[in-house]
Amino acid sequence: MPKSVRFTWACSIKVKLLLWLLFILSITFAATGLFLYYELKKIVIGSIDSHLHSETQFLASLLEVERDELEWELKEASVGEYSIPFSGHYYQIVLGEGEVLVKSPSLADRSLPFSIESPLDIPHYENASGPRGEPLRLMNLPLQLPTGKVTIQAAEGLKDSYDLINSFRNTILMVFPGVFILSVVGGLLITGLSLRPIEVFSRRVGTITERNLNERVDTEGVDKELRQLATSFNRTLERLEDSFLRQRQFFSNASHELRTPVSVIKSQCEVTLKKERSFTEYQEVLKTIHEMVTRMSGLIERILEVSRLDMPGGVLRQENLNLMGILEDVYKLIAPLAEGHQIGISLKGEKGAVILGDRERLIELFTNIVDNAIKYNQPGGRVEMGLETLKGEVVVIIMDTGIGIPKNEVDRIFDRFYRIDTSRGRVAGSGLGLSIVRAIAEAHQGRIEVKSEVGKGSIFKVYLPVYCS
Ligand code: ADP
Q: Vertex 393, ends 468 and 381: CA angle to 5°?
């Protein structure tokens, strides 16, 4: 099953941005509208209150003059708005329990609402109904005079102020939706413009298939954020292209390697079948065919092994393994071959190292290296196997006194189907052995180092993470 990437964005980015924009704009506009509305109301009422306050202070100062002078002073004060009946500007002075001492002519035969319960010396503001039922802002200032309790009242109609506040509210209600719509349209345009490069990018990406993997997305003149994406995508393409090429190369090499024995078998059969042959001749042909089939089956085994190791997740078992035990098994397996080639082989090293891995694969890894150390050696030569424990890892060292590897070839010997020079070895190989070795080491989070000198020999070091030692 291919790993699937989970996208948390169920709907398009555009729709999400639009919804966020709508949400933020609604909250901003509603909050700003309400704030401005209540601030204006506070300022307007505050200014009325301060006017009423100075009015009551003036009236309070009049109470200090003599009674006959008071009437004269009040007449003086009752000019302008206070003299026009029901003008919306009123005052009155109430004695003790509610007897009106004086009032502004604007009140005519009416009076301001009076409550006896107001606490002394504390100005008290309230909204009340005026002489004609109109809304009023009313200030009460109860005072204790030597002659008794007196309440000074001043009032101002709220109609004009309410009209102003309401017209401001209506303006907000008219203007804000327009600004809101403009902001949304602007937001959509900006979102569209910002996302256009992504659309262009995704169209471009959509045109890249396995047939034109060599093409790249243009990163020139692209916005910074998108450039990062394009660069990462190009890098992924590079890796994909590389992997595709290696895959193709692998198939072509594999077919090529298989073609030789198949051609040999075919031509041998064709030539042999042309006429009657002796038993010995048939035996010779069958021997050649058997040799070719053995070579083919070995090659097919290796090809299968390579593709198994290539599979994502690998097919590795994970068990605790005594590494020395594995090397001893490899030694037992390979000793007869070494003897056959007149090559001395030895094994030494610490016994305690335990690693986590796949026993069969590790045997294959070390067998391949030791097999090469024998194959590319000369009679009378030596192969030494050793094991050392380092900090956090173990290293298996396989040293031979063979023909060595030229410096410029060392990096390439791990490539699939790569053989340095077939004439160097006495035994034919496939060029797959070391690629399998590297794949197995990497699957165990390990690495391989090679040092070699032509004519003197090679040292292969396989580093593996140690589980415990
Ligand atoms: P092959 O099947 O040809 O042995 P490998 O992948 O095992 O393929 O090795 C790749 C090449 O590396 C070989 O062709 C050989 O020339 C070279 N090589 C590997 N090991 C040694 C060694 N110990 N000494 C010299 N050459 C070696």
A: 115
Mind listing the pLDDT tens digit for each residue in 289-299?
999 999 899 88
Instruction: Indicate the pTM of the whole model.
Output: 0.59
Instruction: Give me ligand 1 centre to Cα 425, in Å.
Output: 8
Residue-wise pLDDT for 81-98, tens only, equals 888 999 999 999 998 878
β-sheet bridge partners, residue 349: 387
Q: With 90 as the cut, is the pLDDT of residue 324 above it?
A: yes
Residue 337 CB contacts under 8 Å (≥ 6 apart), including other chains: 371, 374
d(CA 379, CA 342): 5
Q: Which residues of 377-389 are buried (b: 16+ CB within 10 A; e: fewer)?
A: beeebbbbbbbee
Which residue matches tokens 């209506």? 170
- Measured CA to CA, the distance from residue 440 to residue 459 in angstroms comes to 18
Sheet with 344-349, strands from edge to edge, namely: 344-349, 382-389, 393-400, 457-465, 447-453
298 lines ligand 1 (CB under 6 A): no
Distance from residue 319's CA to the centre of ligand 1 (Å): 30
Taking 80 as the threshold, does the pLDDT of residue 72 lie above it? no
Q: Is 455 helix (H, G, I), strand (E, B) or coil?
A: coil
- For residue 457 and ligand 1, the question of a CB distance below 6 A is answered with no
Is residue 426 pLDDT above 60, yes or no? Answer: no
